[in-house]
Amino acid sequence: xxxxxxxxxxxxxxxxxxxxxxxxxxxxxxxxxxxxxxxxxxxxxxxxxxxxxxxxxxxxxxxxxxxxxxxxxxxxxxxxxxxxxxxxxxxxxxxxxxxxxxxxxxxxxxxxxxxxxxxxx
Length: 121
Description:
mainly alpha; Helix Hairpins; 0% strand
């Protein structure tokens, strides 16, 4: 194996992943909302000086929500590509992937309430 080629493959895989995140942010309204909320939560975490464990929990929850939104966007894109016309099964697949994001978002809000509510009120 050529080490230069392997290194280039690794660099390209990161480049493509970052391009996917940026594309999702540019095209998906919900991703913009998630990123805005993420920035607010990070700012609030710094302002309220949450401890390391809570910061780790917040980081994990943020990653789960953003990751779920990326998967949802990928699933919706594939479904639209395969089935551009109205189709009940295509709708079901899109609704289920959106539902998964909602479940993660509700979990994130719950974690946020548990961590931030006592400090704010």
